[in-house]
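Crash report, auto-generated. Payload:
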Amino acid sequence: MKVTLSIQRFDPEKDKKPYRKEYEIDVDPTFRILDCLDKVKWDIDGGLTYRRSCSHGICGSDAVMINGKNMLACQVLVQDFKKKYIKIDPLPSLPVIKDLVVDMDGFFAKYEVVKPYLIAKTQPPVKERYQSQEDRALIDEAVNCILCGACSASCPSLWSNDAYLGPAAMLKAYRFVFDSRDDAQAERLDVVDTPDGLWRCHTIFNCVEVCPKEINITWHLSQLKKKCAMREL
Amino acid sequence: MIHKHDLIIVGAGLAGLRAAVETSKYADVGVISKLFPTRSHSGAAQGGIAAALGNEEHDTVEWHVFDSVKGSDYLGDQDAIEMMCGEAPDAIYELEHLGVPFSRTKDGKIAQRQFGGHTKEIFDENGNSKRIPVLRACYSADRTGHVILHTLYEQCVKSNVRFYSEYFILSLIMDEGVCKGLTAFNIRDGQIHTFHAKAVMFGTGGYGRAYRVTSNAYANSGDGVAIAFRAGIPLEDMEFVQFHPTGLYPLGILVTEGARGEGGFLVNKDGERFMKNYAPTVMELAPRDMVTRSIQTEINEGRGIDGKDFVNLDLTHLGEAKLKERLPEITGFAKTYAGIDPVKQPIPILPTAHYSMGGIPTNLFGNVLADEKGNIVKGFFAAGECACVSVHGANRLGTNSLLDAVVHGRRTGKTIVKYLRDAEFGTLPANAEEKDIEKFKKLYATTSGENADKIRVRLKEEMTNKCGVFRNEKDLLSMLDTIHELKEKYKNVHMMHKGKVFNTELQEIIELGNMLEYSDAIVTGALARQECRGAHWRIDHPKRDDVNWLKHTIAFKTEKGIELKYKPVKILKYQPQERKY
Ligand SMILES: Cc1cc2nc3c(=O)[nH]c(=O)nc-3n(C[C@H](O)[C@H](O)[C@H](O)COP(=O)(O)OP(=O)(O)OC[C@H]3O[C@@H](n4cnc5c(N)ncnc54)[C@H](O)[C@@H]3O)c2cc1C
Ligand code: SF4
Ligand code: FES
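Recovered output after restart:
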């Protein structure tokens, strides 16, 4: 079957500003959008630029905006779209390096702010630390984040205020605050219990709608907010 | 531009990052990765990581050793396997201490599940010993690699490890047999950089991308293996490529063996659980090579579903709750990519190129070996899937490769820390990056020539058909011709896009060159090895031949082409026996 891809192009070595280009290609309905991009790149224009690696939604490389919604290009098939005119753009609000490749440095800098690593202040036992199944369940969803950036790039609060740490970083904070093995709750809450932290989240749910791992990010943030409120009491 | 670090680690998967955690406490370390670290393919590992913790039932290191030796079809080196299995429990506890969120047992310990080829010994009523599956694979739902990869990266962030993300390495800098560093280009601006180091370690991952049907990421183009080969370092046992039994039809995306570990059945078009004809005691939990050949035989003999190239993996009897708890990720894959709900319908699967048993030869401590005699290459180390110790021999057991990457990443790290105590930078040879600059210039100057994709497609297609699950002399000879023809074409490859910034076409062309380089070694080794052993199955030599072939292949790149030498397998406790399950 035929589909038309309308892709936002931008080559910093040639273009003053981004423009759109259309490509009509012949594909199987079971092609991933990523396969369509490959087809354009390999057959028509080797310069078309995007990131990718695993090709099945686990590495987080290829979050882009497709028909106005952030998603992984490897996680949707052509047949998932009713119209065979598909618009592909880079993740919104992030600086574009080239075509669909955005600069994620800022995204990762915010990730680092929340101390994204286990801080255990006691000497570990010889074997494993114990953790109950109930405690483990608290972080079941949060540990699935693949750092694709789709959520943060969909967040209106972040669009309007770039200082906001954003949903992905907050979720990471949750992942450690609610890990029964972690001893740095207070330090981490200090980082997120700030105007540019948790309190910029206005529960708009855009992030939840786009997360390719179906993580209920807003729920996790609300649990963090409760934790902060509790500690003020 | 020249960068200087005591140690340069290439690769930010489990092997590279585990080594970085180990060494960064003592040395100035730079980690280079063509992908942002958490995008490395270790993150795709689903099922688990093996260690005889005995958390769910009685288990012993000895059983783990035996299973790995037998699984390797006796080609694994038993000293290396003993060390790996022996260090496994500690390595796992350490991962837990670093923060890995393992799934848990009822009493809060690390949870474990069954996996193919991992067994315990029991005795039947007549006192005969029998082996049945054991709960040995430590897991975190079906996202085990993902959580370990993220945890190791987190620890590197904590200790401020210097990362060069989206840098692509091109060549090793060797000076009279000593490794002094390497060259790489920054994908973001296309500039070639020189990295000067006292020690270089590769953790560059596997080479499954040379096949059309594969579970491997785009990034698994075997760059490290090819780069080492070009630098005069031999490659070991390259012909052993593991085909995983259950790739999602038709792309080959992996459906974890955990699905069978949890009780999934394999059925053919007659609804028959055909594994009973091939491995009656362990059925679907036989080692991968056996299950793969069983499936391929069913397909080849016309018992694929609707006469097509797949059979079914049936999980419907497991029920929705269990699928949701234990196998959420693959449930999602089946829905997204095959439009199938595993709660209600069986999943169509076919064998998929999955794991590279061969690679850069190393000793037990991560030193790269210069020859079949055991001489080491000073300053050069390797671990993980790009390396061949050999702990996997002719066939890797599931969950042993994350273990390999973690144990050897750690052990190699320790070796390097010692090495660095009295190592020096030395002087870099003049014009170290000359060759790469020339290569780039040539590509940038092309105005016409061969289409890279056409070369790539043909390589992958023919490797799958002629050097896949079943092999024979005729096909392998024809495959060698193809490779030589494609290598000639590659010399004239045309690069359409001439930009410097993020030129991923340039990157892909270099990867293609690497794929051609190591495919030659795979096929040459496969052609020479006239026997069936583990993943290497020659229908024209249908038996394992311990008299002539119980030995490792060591391939050298020479002016005249690839030259093969051999070295003996280390056999300690377990003498080769017929492999029955
Ligand atoms: C789908 C799938 C599921 C699996 N499941 C399991 C499992 O359940 N249990 C198990 O034990 N094993 C499993 N395996 C195997 C296991 O995941 C791998 O063997 C292991 O993760 C390899 O780790 P590594 O660190 O050696 O390499 P990788 O994680 O592949 O990392 C390679 C690194 O090298 C870098 N690199 C490569 N080339 C270059 C270059 N030219 N320049 C710069 N950087 C470069 C990459 O960017 C990357 O960071 C699975 C494999 C696959 C494909
Ligand atoms: S929370 Fe979801 S959308 Fe956000 S970075 Fe993680 S995986 Fe991506
Ligand atoms: S390519 Fe890895 S998430 Fe899409």
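Post-recovery validation: Chain A is about 30% helix and 15% strand.
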